[in-house]
Amino acid sequence: MDNAIILMSGGLDSTTVLSFAKKNGYNITGLSFDYGQRHRRELESSKKIADFYGIQRIVFKIDLRQIGGSSLTGDEAVEIGKLERKEIPNTYVPGRNILFLSIAAAYSELLDARTIMMGVNSVDYSGYPDCRPNFISSMEQSLQHGLDRSDLKIMAPLQYLNKGEIITMGIKNNAPYELTYSCYNGREKACGRCDSCLLRLRGFMDAGEIDPTPYETYPDFYIDYLRNLKKYKK
Amino acid sequence: MDNAIILMSGGLDSTTVLSFAKKNGYNITGLSFDYGQRHRRELESSKKIADFYGIQRIVFKIDLRQIGGSSLTGDEAVEIGKLERKEIPNTYVPGRNILFLSIAAAYSELLDARTIMMGVNSVDYSGYPDCRPNFISSMEQSLQHGLDRSDLKIMAPLQYLNKGEIITMGIKNNAPYELTYSCYNGREKACGRCDSCLLRLRGFMDAGEIDPTPYETYPDFYIDYLRNLKKYKK
């Protein structure tokens, strides 16, 4: 059985990756980061998800507030999501995936894991350059050189899927989406307004599924979707 | 004036790089890591060296003891240096430079720096794969992709110099070698026995210079060298 390290944010994408890895028989260690994020709810979620799957989970502490420059760790208000936005959103921690992969690589030595898996996605994503395929393949090569391990692989099984396809995959694999948390605001219920909530709800709509997560409010498109679904079911 | 971030370990190589950058007119921010190293002396040294040059210095805290697997952060004894050794020494923190460069990259965004400089060297080095040119050039590309900044450069001005040539460069640039600290053991005086001390002393010998650092003991080759130097000077 191959050892794999999976970057676990406690969100929908990384949980789908976990369900994929489980189905494919990997021996999994989850790696979560306590980086001073505002939405610490995601750490609780990743713990619940690790418990659900009965896998080992590491929480690596690294205080990215030392660097600053992002509303995900700072005090700046989170932007209200606009799905069509082109510029890089202010929730960006510069090169966060570069860092997370570096740490995963160090653990891969210790845990004798040849595979690092992560839930990056270049279709329904927020425009972060460190989610793009050219970054992932370049970083894989850098880790191979930097650790002198030509067999090390970064797998990004969601890379070319849209959110609806990701959710379809996860539901087929029985991913525990009710335990996941995607909202940027980190309150008890997901806000239903931020970029991450909007992408998630649109994904469930596209997949023809219902998001089990409780929301403070729903965007109009999702309310319409639920109404139509109800009609259809009648 | 170009902004540059220089990885500062407080050792001889990074101080030589600093002297090079100063000479070439960069606006420098030093970046040191408080990573749970045993030889915390290097943090004191990097502070003194930053003060000497009057540059801004950032100390980023990241506890690599969380990962373990290395005598530089753990409790395992440091190996006695053997210059001819081929295998990777046990002072290796897996992929430390990958991590350090990732953090420097994040700061490069914040500080609007296009250049990251570091003192890696592939001639007189300890065999770490994350010091080799193929890693450095691959990592430069990864950072460019991951930050979407095609102008970001990793400069490694010592890459192809041997230790003697590095020291010759530093002395030409008036590098304050008396403030540097290279020993793996971190005691008041350098041990004169570990890999790092042996490389350093051989470098001073090759450069025809005298190391201003106080040592607990000197290896035979350096004692012979000092004796011959004395003879010569008579």
Automatic annotation (TrEMBL), chains A, B:
Binding site for ATP: 8-18
Note describing how the cofactor binds: Binds 1 zinc ion per subunit.
Entry-linked Pfam families: QueC
EC annotation from Swiss-Prot or TrEMBL: 6.3.4.20
Pathway(s) of this molecule: Purine metabolism; 7-cyano-7-deazaguanine biosynthesis
Binding, Zn(2+): 183, 191, 194, 197
Keywords assigned by UniProt, alphabetized: ATP-binding, Ligase, Metal-binding, Nucleotide-binding, Zinc
Record field: catalytic activity: 7-carboxy-7-carbaguanine + NH4(+) + 2 ATP = 7-cyano-7-carbaguanine + 2 AMP + 2 diphosphate + 2 H(+)
MF (Gene Ontology): ATP binding; ligase activity, forming carbon-nitrogen bonds; zinc ion binding
CC cofactor: Zn(2+)
Function: Catalyzes the ATP-dependent conversion of 7-carboxy-7-deazaguanine (CDG) to 7-cyano-7-deazaguanine (preQ(0)).
Similarity comment text for this entry: Belongs to the QueC family.
UniProt name for this protein: 7-cyano-7-deazaguanine synthase
Lineage: Archaea, Methanobacteriati, Thermoplasmatota, Thermoplasmata, Thermoplasmatales
Encoding gene per record: queC
